[in-house]
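Protocol step 4 of 6: structure prediction from sequence.
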Amino acid sequence: MKGKIFVAGYDGEPAEVNFLKEGVFTMIVIQKPLIEGTDGVLFAYDYLTGHKAAIPKSVALTNVVATQENVNSPAVAPYIYETTPVK
């Protein structure tokens, strides 16, 4: 059914990126883990140092939408995960 059914994935890990490049997925939505992690550490620091008022009540980060057309572009490529085999 490749190319006949719209399939969306969620993550930028290699297997999903390969499915996108092969046309199995129509698109994938990729998170920005560096920003998520950085914000988490900064908010924890603010909390632990008594600056609780500096922590926002909620944070909505934008995601990156990757398609076959843009998956290798400089706007998308930095958010695709690389994995290292476990030894």
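Step 5 (inspection) to follow. The chain has a mean pLDDT of 90.
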